[in-house]
């Protein structure tokens, strides 16, 4: 058990999170005491316990104490067998939000030095993050307080996948009709304070297409009537068992120019154990979407699903590349509260080796560039979730949402509205998760 002696709950939480992220396999078995005392620009820290006894005075230089403390702990524990050095001392969801400030103010070589000296991020990882930053640069330069984006949440699915932790409702005609009625009322009655059209509209879930043709058309019509045209209009069509030719044609006719078709894995043995429909008809639906001329098709894959090994995951990535969608998003399985896998205490013992490095190389060799990244806790391989895009197809919504660059207006259960104030800080308003 780790015991931390310091009056700041925030600092203690930050250190606990550091150990949970850096030593995920050993975290619960760690046993030592840490004493921390901060005076002026000095941090007095000592750590003692089984097989460890170390003390140091850390001198602060215009930075928060937890950065200096975590650098010290990083150096102290980095030789441990199961230590995860990825992202250095950063443990947050949005590493690029902080790191981008380094790239903005320094040359490439200077940035790499700063990222190691301050955050213990190695050169190879820093270079990958720099690629993402450069692929976001145009959008970053053109973002401002007057830009906004719209998110609509549809909490329905044909079935509940074993890895899903969302508040998802299985298809129910009465509930879907009532939800659509209330949702379109909220959209129609919203008092819009922006004078121009949105940068992007994103209908996510759940599986938006599971509400059926009529309900989905009503939702899209309400959005068009309220907000007008947009540069990027995304609808998640993730489950092929929710699709029809009628729905795909309607989406294209309404101006939707980006859709997601999400196989998650092409390993049929794995998919059949997830309470999810087979992908045997995936090619049919992908080809229909391609024939209709959607500008951007995204495909999601999840790495680390039960029963999958490294070779199986790489095979799924190769099959996704063969389809040649404009976007491929790689998620690592996260065991979250509320999912059946979490409730069943699923534990992954597979050795994935250098899977992440190979997946990055494979995608970039096939002209997919990383354009956004976020991290999740309780991931079975690594915390990274990375969006890749062919040139000119990076998703506006994914970038501005993840990097918190622009205003987001959220509709539907659990959706969050985030409005930037003049200081560049978000004022959040989270919708209820209960109907």
TrEMBL record:
<keyword id="KW-0560">Oxidoreductase</keyword>
<dbReference type="InterPro" id="IPR006638">
    <property type="entry name" value="Elp3/MiaA/NifB-like_rSAM"/>
</dbReference>
<dbReference type="GO" id="GO:0006779">
    <property type="term" value="P:porphyrin-containing compound biosynthetic process"/>
</dbReference>
<feature type="domain" description="Radical SAM core">
    <location>
        <begin position="142"/>
        <end position="372"/>
    </location>
</feature>
<keyword id="KW-0408">Iron</keyword>
<dbReference type="InterPro" id="IPR034505">
    <property type="entry name" value="Coproporphyrinogen-III_oxidase"/>
</dbReference>
<dbReference type="GO" id="GO:0005737">
    <property type="term" value="C:cytoplasm"/>
</dbReference>
<dbReference type="InterPro" id="IPR013785">
    <property type="entry name" value="Aldolase_TIM"/>
</dbReference>
<dbReference type="InterPro" id="IPR023995">
    <property type="entry name" value="HemZ"/>
</dbReference>
<keyword id="KW-0949">S-adenosyl-L-methionine</keyword>
<dbReference type="InterPro" id="IPR007197">
    <property type="entry name" value="rSAM"/>
</dbReference>
<dbReference type="GO" id="GO:0051539">
    <property type="term" value="F:4 iron, 4 sulfur cluster binding"/>
</dbReference>
<dbReference type="GO" id="GO:0016491">
    <property type="term" value="F:oxidoreductase activity"/>
</dbReference>
<protein>
    <submittedName>
        <fullName>Coproporphyrinogen dehydrogenase HemZ</fullName>
        <ecNumber>1.3.99.22</ecNumber>
    </submittedName>
</protein>
<dbReference type="GO" id="GO:0046872">
    <property type="term" value="F:metal ion binding"/>
</dbReference>
<dbReference type="InterPro" id="IPR058240">
    <property type="entry name" value="rSAM_sf"/>
</dbReference>
<keyword id="KW-0411">Iron-sulfur</keyword>
<dbReference type="Pfam" id="PF04055">
    <property type="entry name" value="Radical_SAM"/>
</dbReference>
<keyword id="KW-0479">Metal-binding</keyword>
